[in-house]
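Please fill in the sequence for the structure shown.

STRUCTURE ENCODING:
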């Protein structure tokens, strides 16, 4: 049996076990499993991976590439992804711009990079995630507060400055980031895994083994998708994936001498699920608006929750598919064709709705709303 296919079947079986455990595990209990993954197992894996690489200044390109990708996707979210929504749905449009450019590779991507590509690729992915976290923790927070400030006409300079300081501290205190900092310092001193005491090596290796099965069980237990906005969210995530495939193909065309493992890394890392951090920023803005008595919210929190719920299984399935057919996805033409196909599929709901126009030549709200699960009736306009 093909090695990639065999690995895929093993991973799918563990996810299936997680699905079987759904009824026995309460939703709130999943937070504990997630904490163990992100605070113990994943940092151990990243630490081992980092100490296996050679520290070079050229590695700075990876966080810069991730940050550039985030910014490009932010523009795409405004002008391409938001096209699925009527102009009146401004709170949903802002929600899309916050969530869809963000990445959460810890749960949706890193476990599969370890299995299929190994520790060296995981170390590069962990470095790239630094740029992604700067975008998610700081830049998206500033964007959320900018929208709140523009709509509420209040002076938030002091609170924003204070919040940015607390976010910077949170960035440093996060276990994954602490491990990356310690690992890079040890590399700068010329250390590797053999340089640390044996008992520490063995402890870290044992913790590392926990990650892949824990993540897969978590994915299986956490999949709970609401059907109300299924069509719209599937369309948005498919278009996000398609645009990402096209960007990865462009990079592969520009640098044809890249190793196959690096091409696969450039394909799967941007396909990570949406991050929780933008949701935290939107929730903070929502709390401020409740205190202010704001009747027209900046963001649609329920819509954001549904996107997050669907994003993890969607990205997981996509990443497993890429790795299962890795011999095809190292070809830039296949990557580009996959991107165009995903974008085309995502446009079906919008095209279908536009074909059902009213006699006056306007988009039929009933037809569109029924397809994507939106309330597209008459609404009061908002400021942008």
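FILLED IN BY: designer on duty
SEQUENCE:
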């Amino acid at each position: 049996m093909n090695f990639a296919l065999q690995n895929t079947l093993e991973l799918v079986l563990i996810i299936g076990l997680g699905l079987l455990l759904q009824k026995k595990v309460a939703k709130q209990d999943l937070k504990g499993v997630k904490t163990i993954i992100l605070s113990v197992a994943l940092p151990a894996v990243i630490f081992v991976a980092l100490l296996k690489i050679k520290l070079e200044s050229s590695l700075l390109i990876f966080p810069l590439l991730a940050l550039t990708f985030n910014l490009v996707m932010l523009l795409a979210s405004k002008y391409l992804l938001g096209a699925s929504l009527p102009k009146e749905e401004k709170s949903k449009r802002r929600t899309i711009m916050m969530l869809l450019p963000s990445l959460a590779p810890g749960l949706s991507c890193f476990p599969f990079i370890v299995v299929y590509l190994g520790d060296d690729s995981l170390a590069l992915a962990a470095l790239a995630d630094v740029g992604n976290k700067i975008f998610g923790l700081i830049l998206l927070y500033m964007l959320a507060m900018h929208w709140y400030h523009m709509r509420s006409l209040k002076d938030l300079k002091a609170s924003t400055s204070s919040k940015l300081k607390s976010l910077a501290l949170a960035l440093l205190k996060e276990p994954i980031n602490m491990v990356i900092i310690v690992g890079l310092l040890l590399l700068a001193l010329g250390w590797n895994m053999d340089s640390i005491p044996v008992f520490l090596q063995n402890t870290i290796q044992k913790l590392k083994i926990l990650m892949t099965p824990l993540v897969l069980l978590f994915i299986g237990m956490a999949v709970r998708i609401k059907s109300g906005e299924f069509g719209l969210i599937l369309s948005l995530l498919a278009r996000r994936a398609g645009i990402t495939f096209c960007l990865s193909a462009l990079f592969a065309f520009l640098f044809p001498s890249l190793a196959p493992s690096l091409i696969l890394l450039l394909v799967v890392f941007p396909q990570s699920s949406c991050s929780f951090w933008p949701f935290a920023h939107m929730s903070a803005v929502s709390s401020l608006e409740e205190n202010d008595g704001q009747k027209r919210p900046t963001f649609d929190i329920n819509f954001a929750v549904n996107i997050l719920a669907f994003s993890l299984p969607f990205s997981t399935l996509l990443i497993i598919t890429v790795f299962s057919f890795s011999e095809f996805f190292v070809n830039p033409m296949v990557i580009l064709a996959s991107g165009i196909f995903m974008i085309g599929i995502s446009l079906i709901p919008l095209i279908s709705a536009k074909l059902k126009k009213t006699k006056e030549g306007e988009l039929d709200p009933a037809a569109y709303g029924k397809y994507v699960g939106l309330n597209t009736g008459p609404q009061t306009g908002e400021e942008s």
